[in-house]
Amino acid sequence: IQTPEEFVELYHRFCPNLPQVLKITPDRRKKILLRLKENYQKVFWVEVFKRADEILIPGNRRHAEWKPNLDFVIESSSNCVKILEGKYPTTGQKHRQRAIQSLLEEQDEL
Q1: CA 20 to 30 Å from 54, out of 30, 71, 92, 94?
Q2: Mean pLDDT per 10-residue section of the chain, whose length is 110 residues
Q3: What does the alpha-carbon distance between residue 42 and residue 36 come to, in Å, rounded to a whole number?
Q4: What is the longest distance spanned by two Cα atoms in the chain?
Q5: Rounded to whole angstroms, what are the CA distances from 23 to 32, 53, 54, 79?
Q6: Is 57 within 8 Å of 89 (Cβ atoms)?
């Protein structure tokens, strides 16, 4: 990958469940170029994007569900590493976490 446009195209291709990018702002362009300087390999970004697309942090009574977006992915190299390491819950874990959250909320009500 060599350009921010190629980067965003790849993001759209492998992150259909995440918010789409409408514009590559100057700040986004700068951050994408920094991330590409750290790692320009397509296979790396495909894996980051595939895993990011599966992230879902369940909501509760106080907070809505949260999914990453392009800005989260490009904010820092550590965000990419955390995504690859599986530090965030994925849709496969969603049901288990909701059950746990529900039990905790019930416990709070007692």
Answers
A1: 30
A2: 95 95 97 95 93 84 83 94 88 52 53
A3: 10
A4: 56
A5: 13, 19, 23, 21
A6: yes
